[in-house]
UniProtKB/TrEMBL annotation:
Recorded GO MF terms: ATP binding; ATP hydrolysis activity
Residue ranges that the Swiss-Prot or TrEMBL entry lists as coiled coil: none
PANTHER family named among the record's database cross-references: ABC TRANSPORTER, ATP-BINDING PROTEIN, TRANSPORT ATP-BINDING PROTEIN
Pfam families, per the entry: ABC_tran
Organism: marine sediment metagenome
Keywords, sorted A to Z: ATP-binding, Nucleotide-binding, Transport
UniProt name for this protein: ABC transporter domain-containing protein
Length: 225
């Protein structure tokens, strides 16, 4: 059996909260245990569902995997390497391999950016493509992969000019331009109309199958898991 692409080993994330005077005098520490000893493995090419009610630590777990938060304890292993704590240069490399689709696509985009700029931004940050023309070619390909066709019909639109489903497709295209091996999808359809959810889920499944991606799919809704 092949080594899992991702291993989460007894990971904790505790947040300190304000203490009372009595607790301070007694030297007591008070914590909110957002994630308290979670362990799981994800295999290459798998869609792994992390399902739970609101406030159970699902999104915190996703942020820990994306290195948006540092764990209090435990280990995160990616492709056999310990990525629990990474220096800046290693963090950039890791985030090129592991991308995230956020719950609210509108909030994750700069409202002053056109769709082309939103998708192209990761390419600029990671220095992919020597010219604007090369980057534009990658942007077009990514838009086609998420079924926004023809790409020219969407590249110049601002986020407010797109429907909720189209914005989530653009957000997904943004993750694909770097050719990641894994995507963390945090409640990707919870803010989309019911009529569009099935289309977005089908698109994500198709992209996963075509590109051989690994998904961590975070949701509170068992019907979409």
């Amino acid at each position: 059996m092949s080594e899992p692409i991702l291993k989460i080993e007894n990971v904790h994330k505790w947040f300190p909260i304000r203490r009372t005077i009595t607790q301070i005098l007694k030297g007591e520490h008070v914590w909110v245990k957002a994630v308290d000893g979670i362990t799981f493995n994800i295999n290459q090419g798998e869609i792994f569902g992390l399902v739970g009610e609101s406030g159970c630590g699902k999104t915190t777990t996703g942020k820990l995997l994306m290195k948006l938060l540092e764990p209090t304890d435990g280990k995160i292993i990616f492709r056999g390497k310990d990525v629990t704590h990474l220096e800046a240069n290693k963090l950039k490399e890791y985030r090129r391999n592991v991308q995230m689709v956020f719950q609210d696509p509108y909030a994750s985009m700069n409202p002053r950016f056109r769709a082309q700029d939103v998708i192209e931004e990761p390419l600029i940050i990671h220095q992919v493509g020597e010219t604007r023309a090369e980057r534009e070619k990658i942007v077009r390909r990514s838009l086609e992969e998420v079924r926004l066709i023809p790409p020219e019909g969407f590249m110049q639109r601002f986020p407010h000019m797109l429907s909720g489903g189209q914005r989530q497709r653009v957000a997904t295209a943004r993750t694909l331009v770097l050719s990641p091996s894994m995507i963390v999808a945090d409640e990707p359809v919870s803010m989309i109309d019911l009529s569009t959810r099935a289309e977005i889920l089908h698109m994500m499944k198709t992209v996963q199958r075509e590109l051989g991606l690994t998904y961590l799919y975070i949701t509170h809704d068992l019907s979409t898991a």
